[in-house]
Amino acid sequence: MNIVKFISLLVAILFFASISLMVGPGDFSYSDENFMNIVLSIRLPQVTLSFLVGGLLSLSGLLFQAMFKNSLATPYTLGVASGAALGATVYFTLGLAFSIPFINSVSIFSFAFALVCVLLVYSMAIKNGRVSTHSLLLSGVVLSMVCSSLILFLQFMGNERDALQVVRWLMGGLDVVGFDSTLRLIPISLIGISYSLFHSRKLNIMYLGDDIAITRGVDIYKFRKYLYLLNSLVVAMVVAECGPIGFVGLLGPHMAKKLFSHKHQLLIPSSFLIGGLLLMICDLLSRNILSTTQLPVGVLTALMGGPFLLLLLSRSSRV
Question: What is the mean pLDDT of the chain?
């Protein structure tokens, strides 16, 4: 049964990827040379990037939910996205303009500030060599609020053009030309999936509680530390490339849990595939829902994920 579901999932991914390559803004015939140039230089990179970003966010959400034993945990719970957003805001406000081969300059600032937030949260959460999940959550929330306040301050102090750039970046987007962003995310995708699958048994045991995990030979504190650092690195790289794209990290894992079992051996690949499929569909809709412009994909994921989050909260309150 699970094999049939995986095959169906792969077929759906190929189907929507094909549609995404063929459908989009622009009046071109399929035999036109310009059409092929657009497909190869814009649409194909955008489709592959949307799949990777959606898959990574969904996988990250799954790992955070296992780490905190909380079904409402998301990749942005610990303030990494807010740190990356602050970095981008500083870049736009300072009016910087420089180029490095293969790397987007705004991504450098976003990634650097995200890493600073990761280290700050980790330093505040570690006690006696152990990482406290309660302290992680609290530190992440506080740091996220501080970063958000600084972003508002910089927007207020900057000019209208800089403020508009910041707002546009905060909406999240997959507007790319070429495969540079995709190539930068492929290594972390392989590392994240491989590490998660290798430690899938530990992820299953984490749901049983720390005491039971320790009795079964799992160094839960060391594992949680590495899991936090890897997950934060994944989120930092994704946000640095595309801006904060919300709710995919919440939708993907929950859909995977509904379709497959709760064992992480199946949840890890299925969450990645479902997250990639969801963002591909959202990207397809965002490029075609308006005739005059392209809607930022982060806006569409928020419109889809908001009602889903409210549904989860209403269900959890009844339990």
Answer: 84
